[in-house]
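Tip: read the tokens left to right.
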């Protein structure tokens, strides 16, 4: 923790490094209390750079020795203007020289989980973004790449497994019960991809042969008791390897590829070269302990980290402003992979719906709040604060739009060119976009690349308005598109974005109509096409449509072809038509959600009772979807789920209505109860019609059946509880007790808890007793209680009281990030009505826990702080109370740099 405020680092201030470090030798004598790190750096000044001091950055290191070419050298340890600790050598030797640095560390005291730390009795590292400087003085920036040779020494009994990047070169016994392993990674890499592990672990192993015939060893390393939970991770890894080779021609370039699970981890996982380190949540799964959602999470995170091997590691980022170069592209790739794994067109559409839902839930609010920033940010104080939904998920949408604009084959050609040009380099987002454009010279992307690249530069979600006119006699339909952006921090004005709009047109019977633009040949007009909007306003006139009084109904932004907020101006009847007939499953879902959202918002805005029922027309349309056996169960479950309170809050904010989270909750809960009651017999039928067939299988089809059955059970319990009928809650309780697998058990437990059924308490106790030794299951147990809907009426507030009590539960700890997130993030992010209370008790709890977390893990604290990002959209009394809590948090004497940036932004005018 430093005094004052960290300075702003600007993208435009980038200068290439004056020194290079082509080779690094590291020797670790590992000990939890005092680890000694000896580094031998081969350093040379860049031919183009003037003679200048060498400045190596370090953090919290105790320096023992510095030698240049084996000789003592004059150096000082200093703070630069911004307060960063540096080892400065004013006059380094000319030419290539070896700098030897010896430092000491205390891994067991490292509670930030950045650099070298201990967890569960082992040693682990996390170096992205700026953790390597906590291991040794270095040019800790991604455009400095080195070949690493790493020697690990440790007590053999306590740390029998010694791992680092690359290939194992040698192993031997040492005196005093210690042993040694030497690893060599032939691929030059930036320091953020360095990793080591020393622990008592076992591995699931798999040997594979690539298409080209090369042999590889795959390993998933876990604690001895967890070996039976590694099958899905290994399968996912093998599928990822096959996919990347088939789809992008990108092979595994290492003899050995390792995944290691660790239970204390700040994020999801880390793509260290050849030695991926994972939050155990994204490795460990057995049918008995993991739900379908966990299985999906493992599949996509394993794929994500594996795909980084090319998009991130082989071609890396020039500087951290380019983070989306690797993250946006790699998320795009893992989403494509998950779609391909899903199989059927319907299952693919379900994936897309889930991705869009996640984007709207996390990224749209970010883009409308104080943390709004471009996909390629212009300035930051703490880079860890910019591992955001914008850089990841919006970044992936930007890549996806390029893919849409140049087509599948064109995109592949662009990727090929990207690797041909930049393999082994540290490059920028511009370099990526240029490669995709250059490989597709005739495309809109190539012709208007600068306009397209505004997606990288401008923050905020574009607003797109679509209106149309119908010439009944001529059979001509004209679409008018207008777009604009709202001001965001540091960007008062926005220029128009270039975006692909995928659309279709339906007639009154729901039949697809041909799309022939004025002036085009009528022959072979398609029923779906992609328009490109590249200006603030544009008109498109379609002709050759059947004349008559009924205007066609547009289906706009199919597949969510651009990340915009669309106002399509359609009325309920038109949306009902799309819900019934749109050939694009995403749009069918979207139409249903829009109908629901419109009705819910009208009830939130009105002064009358929150319990005004949903319209009969809408309920019938939803019932029809629920009954339609032609639709996949997964799709039906999504279509029958109400928009979340967070999404409703965002929509209210977008129209300027002050947000009363209690009212939103009351409106949504009563709609949920209405759907539960009015569709009760359909829910029962859906439940009975979707039993699990055979044993547990984590494929899209089986998961969809379980999703629908679980939703149905939740609705049945909700309705039964209100009616005082014990049958469904009894069945759910039975399932908690002896369900065949975790998806079934946890689905039943959730149904009871979400219904506030009397049996929820006993079921929670029983569940805890069954799984007390399974940390990841206990995380779920906390999470479920923290996200449970507050009861309406006299019992309101009981969920919050429960969470407060659970903070004192013997199993609860802030020190483990998964556990802290399970209780506190679920309350503050996913349970608005429990968190935003008129008595401000939620904000008080937030402030207390924030201070506690910040004292030992600032990165986690900075993430937790973001629960208050959007305090400005709140109605009174919430708004003033939230502001006060933020001001109190900012006024504390000790605030980390990470947290300071978030609080300052939230409080800035
Ligand atoms: N690069 C990692 C990923 O996208 C995420 C990451 C960044 C990370 N910083 C981290 C993980 C710090 C753990 C800790 O997969
Ligand atoms: Zn990533």
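Filled-in amino acids:
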């Amino acid at each position: 923790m430093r005094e004052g405020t960290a300075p702003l680092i600007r993208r435009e201030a980038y200068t290439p490094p004056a020194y290079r470090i082509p080779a690094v030798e590291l020797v670790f004598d590992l000990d939890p209390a005092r680890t000694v790190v000896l580094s031998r750096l081969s350093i040379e000044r860049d031919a183009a750079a003037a003679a200048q001091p060498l400045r190596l950055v370090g953090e919290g290191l105790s320096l023992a020795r510095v030698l240049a070419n084996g000789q003592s050298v004059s150096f000082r340890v200093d703070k630069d203007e911004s307060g960063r600790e540096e080892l400065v050598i004013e006059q380094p030797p000319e030419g290539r020289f070896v700098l030897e640095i010896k430092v000491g560390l205390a891994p067991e005291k490292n509670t930030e989980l950045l650099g070298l730390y201990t967890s569960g009795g082992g040693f682990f590292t996390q170096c992205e973004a700026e953790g390597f400087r906590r291991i040794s003085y270095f040019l800790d920036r991604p455009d400095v790449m080195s070949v690493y040779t790493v020697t690990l020494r440790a007590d053999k009994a306590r740390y029998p497994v010694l791992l680092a990047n690359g290939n194992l070169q040698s192993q031997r016994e040492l005196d005093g019960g210690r042993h040694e392993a030497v690893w060599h990674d032939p691929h030059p890499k930036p320091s953020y991809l360095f990793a080591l592990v020393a622990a008592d672990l076992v591995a699931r192993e798999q040997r594979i042969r690539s298409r080209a015939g090369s042999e590889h060893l795959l390993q998933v390393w876990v604690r001895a008791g967890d070996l039976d939970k590694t099958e899905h991770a290994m399968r996912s890894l093998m599928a990822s390897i096959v996919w990347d080779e088939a789809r992008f021609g990108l092979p595994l370039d290492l003899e050995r590829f390792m995944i290691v699970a660790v239970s204390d981890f700040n994020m999801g996982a880390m793509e260290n070269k050849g030695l991926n380190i994972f939050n155990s949540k994204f490795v460990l799964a057995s049918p008995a302990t993991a739900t379908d959602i966990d299985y999906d999470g493992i599949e996509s995170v394993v794929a994500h980290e594996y795909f980084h091997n090319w998009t991130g590691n082989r071609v890396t980022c020039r500087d951290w402003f380019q983070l989306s170069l690797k993250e946006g592209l790699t998320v795009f790739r893992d989403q494509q992979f998950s779609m391909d794994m899903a199989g059927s067109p319907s299952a693919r559409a379900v994936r897309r719906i889930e991705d869009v839902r996640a984007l709207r839930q996390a990224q749209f609010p970010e883009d409308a709040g104080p943390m709004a920033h471009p996909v390629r940010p212009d300035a930051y104080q703490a880079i860890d604060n910019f591992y955001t939904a914008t850089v990841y998920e919006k970044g992936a949408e930007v890549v996806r739009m390029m893919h849409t604009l140049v087509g599948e084959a064109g995109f592949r050609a662009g990727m090929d060119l990207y690797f041909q040009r930049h393999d082994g380099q540290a490059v920028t987002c511009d370099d990526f976009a240029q490669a995709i454009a250059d490989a597709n010279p005739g495309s809109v992307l190539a012709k208007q690349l600068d306009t397209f690249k505004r997606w990288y530069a401008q923050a905020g979600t574009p607003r797109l308005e679509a209106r149309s006119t119908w010439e009944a006699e001529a059979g001509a339909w004209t679409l008018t598109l207008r777009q604009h952006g709202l001001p965001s921090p540091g960007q008062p004005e926005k220029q128009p974005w270039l975006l692909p709009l995928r659309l279709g047109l339906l007639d009154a019977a729901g039949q697809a109509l041909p799309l022939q633009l004025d002036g085009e040949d009528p022959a072979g007009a398609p029923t779906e096409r992609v328009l490109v909007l590249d200006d603030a306003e544009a008109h498109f006139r379609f002709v050759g449509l059947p004349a008559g009084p009924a205007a066609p109904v547009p289906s706009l932004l199919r597949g969510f072809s651009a990340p915009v907020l669309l106002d399509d101006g359609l009325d309920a009847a038109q949306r009902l038509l799309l819900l019934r007939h749109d050939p694009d499953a995403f749009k069918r879902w979207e139409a249903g959600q829009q109908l629901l959202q419109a009705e819910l918002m009208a009830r939130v805005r009105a002064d009358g009772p929150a319990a005004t029922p949903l319209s009969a027309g809408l309920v019938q349309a939803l019932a029809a979807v629920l009954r339609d056996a032609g639709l996949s169960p997964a799709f039906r479950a999504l279509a029958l789920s109400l928009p979340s309170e967070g999404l409703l809050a965002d929509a209210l904010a977008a129209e300027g209505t002050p947000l009363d989270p209690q009212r939103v909750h009351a409106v949504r809960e009563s709609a949920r109860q209405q759907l539960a009651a009015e569709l009760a017999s359909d829910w029962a039928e859906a439940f009975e019609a979707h039993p699990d067939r055979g044993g547990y299988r984590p494929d899209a089809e089986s998961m969809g059946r379980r999703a629908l059955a679980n939703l149905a059970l939740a609705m049945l319990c909700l309705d039964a509880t209100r009616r005082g009928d014990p049958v469904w809650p009894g069945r759910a309780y039975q399932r908690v007790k002896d369900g065949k697998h975790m998806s079934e058990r946890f689905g039943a437990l959730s149904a009871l808890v979400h219904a506030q059924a009397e049996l929820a308490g006993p079921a929670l106790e029983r569940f805890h007793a069954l799984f007390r030794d399974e940390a990841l299951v206990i995380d779920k147990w906390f999470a479920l209680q923290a996200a449970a809907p507050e009861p309406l009426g006299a019992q309101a507030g009981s969920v919050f009281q429960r969470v407060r009590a659970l903070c004192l539960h013997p199993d609860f700890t802030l020190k483990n990030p998964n556990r802290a997130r399970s209780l506190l993030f679920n309350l503050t992010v996913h349970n608005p009505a429990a968190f935003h209370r008129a008595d401000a008790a939620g904000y008080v709890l937030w402030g207390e826990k924030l201070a506690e977390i910040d004292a030992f893990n600032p990165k986690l604290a900075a993430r937790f702080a973001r629960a208050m990002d959007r305090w400005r959209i709140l109605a009174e009394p919430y708004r003033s109370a939230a502001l006060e809590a933020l001001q109190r948090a900012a006024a504390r004497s000790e605030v980390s740099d990470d947290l300071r940036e978030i609080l300052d932004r939230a409080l800035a005018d």
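The CA atoms of residues 642 and 672 lie 7 Å apart. The longest strand covers residues 178-190.
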